[in-house]
Amino acid sequence: MQAWQVHENGEPGEVMRLAETDRPVPGEGQVLLKVRAANINFPDALLCRGQYQIRPPLPFTPGVEICGETEDGRRVIANPALPHGGFAEYAVADAAALLPAPEALDDAEAAALHIGYQTGWFGLHRRARLQEGETLLVHAAAGGVGSAAVQLGKAAGAKVIGVVGGADKAKVARELGCDLVLDRREDDIVAAVKEATGGRGADVIYDPVGGDAYAKSAKCVAFEGRILVVGFASGAIPSPALNHALVKNYSIVGLHWGLYNTKDPRSIARCHEELTGLAAKGAVKPLVSERVPLADAAAAVQRVADGITTGRVAVLPHGGAA
Fold it and tell me: CA-CA distance, 253 to 227, in Å (whole number)?
């Protein structure tokens, strides 16, 4: 089979190499999956760079999120067990963690319903306790993680303000349903959020960016607001002033979705049922902006790493319009 492999750490476009390899052999409790669609996530770039919290042995195949097919023909969503990731024709995954792919979504959309939407659901509902009528501010609202949070926020009845970088991404954010879209390159984010909320600020702020985005969040969070720390796509990890959180009476809430796999795995399945229901009603639909063949995966991962994509980019190892 064909699979992309990383033999040394570095930028995805430089270190990912397409090779002919043997199909991976499932270990105890694992299953072999034919990869129908592999979704590109920012952690795939971090894996290539050697900067992710998990560092699989070299060489490894990246690709942390797939829609696959079991040997008995079931269509499932899975997180491949590294080092046999999803940017290949076949991958392996833990049998106990397989989730049924929603019938309402095609393969690429189904693959994209997992990490980003689970992160959004746990972040907004379990960690931040978002309420109907509250104001939700989403940084990087046109990206894979942000677009999921926008849709979930709207589904929960929140007013959603999306922050993006550039006119093209602003257009995408509006189409996703944002009530207000702000361009971080053009707009005064803090002033605009306060104006839109009558001076109150945002009740919940969803931040997968860190750095300057977090600094702005702290300046426009509402009384008893919650800043959700989801990731650091900017590469800058902020050092929050805790005295500021004390004086303004807001919460800084961390979210590590992967931890639920070990601490509370049943909650993952319950969340998937909620997301499947929302997809069936059309309340959420993953934005898949590109579908590329396996041969173009390295270039696509590099585009995601560079922050120039919108929504999700899916790799189709077996061709077709999944």
Answer: 6
The two tokens of residue 94 are 């833990």
Quote the tokens at residue 103.
Answer: 């019938």
What pLDDT is attached to residue 319? Answer: 79
Which residue type sits at 113? L
Domains contained in the chain, CATH given:
2-113+286-316 (3.90.180.10), 116-258 (3.40.50.720)
Tokens (6 digits) for 132 = 């109907």
End-to-end Cα spacing for the chain: 19
Tell me the per-residue pLDDT of 174-187, one tens digit each, with 9 for 90 and over: 999 999 999 999 99
User: What type of residue sits at position 34?
Assistant: K
E runs forming strands in 9-69 = 16-20, 30-39, 66-69
The number of residues making up the chain comes to: 322
DSSP state of 250: -
**Which residue has 């319903």 as its token pair?**
113
Residue 179, Cβ neighbours under 10 Å: how many? 16
Over its C-alpha atoms, the chain yields an Rg (Å, rounded) of 19
CA distance 156 to 238: 29
Handedness of CA 8, 13, 17, 22 (dihedral sign): positive
- Predicted TM-score (pTM) of the model is 0.92
| pLDDT per residue as tens digits for the range 250-305 | 999 999 998 998 899 999 999 999 999 999 999 999 999 999 999 999 999 999 99
CA distance 120 to 105: 18
CB neighbourhood size of 174 (10 A): 16
- Neighbouring CB atoms inside 10 A of 319's CB total 8
SS3 (DSSP) at 200: coil
